[in-house]
Amino acid sequence: MDSVLAHFYKLSSVLKIIVATFMAKSPGQLKNDKPINTPIGASFSEAGVSIVDAVHSENWQMDWTVHPYQKVLLIVSGSGYIEDGTLSWPLKKGIVVYIPDHWRYRLTDNPGTPVSLFILFFETRIFGTHKDIGFVKRPIFFSQESFAQGGLERMRLLFYEQSANLPGSQEILRGMAWRFLGEIKRTHSRSLPGDVSVDPSRSNEARVQHFLAELNDNFFRPMTLDDIAKRLVMSKRTLTSLFRKHTGTSFLNYIQKLRIEHAKKLLRDSNRSIITISFECGFDNLSNFYRTFKNLTHCSPNEWRRKSKKSSP
User: Fold this and answer.
1) What is the domain partition of the chain in residue ranges?
2) Cβ distance 98 to 135 under 8 Å?
């Protein structure tokens, strides 16, 4: 098993280069640039998923609508609002909206700023209803960067699999769609007042605090200060200063501590191999894992495992 994972470490580095190259060559632009005046309906594949792009015209109009399936909107440009007859919610670039099945609503563009968007449909036959997933019948709003890889990147990959239709594409589409719903559920379940991480109208401190809360679920993901600063819409210097203010340490030390704490839990509570634990905790290099673990615990992973199991009741 360890030899397989060691080979996977090498393979993952190659895959990262391939994915980065693909992303660099694939601008997040809409494929269909012909403006439409009315909504697009769903046409499902074998996977029970459909993803389309829509460019609203200046004459866009939408009647009150109820559909039997769930869907997700990602606003690429323009602005407007969604309403249900009682409440209305603003839309702008970067907003992701989950719309439940059997919910009556309509989408209206603001004058002079017609909306362009991606739409992901989930067929009820495969994905059930909002009740089956545990959602209430109301819209859920996030920024696209709330998602692990960002909503825009996820949509891009869905488009690719749908267009390529290669062997396995239907299974990949279905799996990615389930993950999309799962991440919506996880993000929505966090006890935080909305997604402020990329909202420039919020203070820098609020965005950093929100990011720190998210980090508990994402410490194993590769990330750099430059990437985080860009996402939080602040300078790297400001981010570094605020991060130290709220954590008392640097970003590198903080994320290493999160990773090693998770590793200690796995070493104590499971019989997984060291290389498996290292990989799960976000280390791409086993020697780096050993070095970091020893720096923080003053013993090796194997020594810590033996000690922790002896002290366990």
Assistant:
1) 49-189
2) yes
DSSP character for 58? T
The superfamily CATH assigns to domain 49-189 is Regulatory protein AraC (2.60.120.280)
Beta strand segments in the chain, E: 49-55, 70-77, 80-83, 88-91, 95-99, 106-109, 116-122, 140-143
At 55, which amino acid appears?
Answer: V
Task: Pick the closest to residue 77 from 96, 94, 52, 99 (CA basis).
Answer: 94
Q: The tokens of 169 are what?
A: 């594409």
Q: What is the pLDDT, as a whole number, of residue 214?
A: 80
- Single pTM value for the model: 0.61
Q: Which helix (H) or strand (E) holds 123?
A: none
Token pair for residue 136?
A: 């209430």
Predicted pLDDT of residue 256: 95
Name the residue with higher pLDDT: 2 or 222. Answer: 222
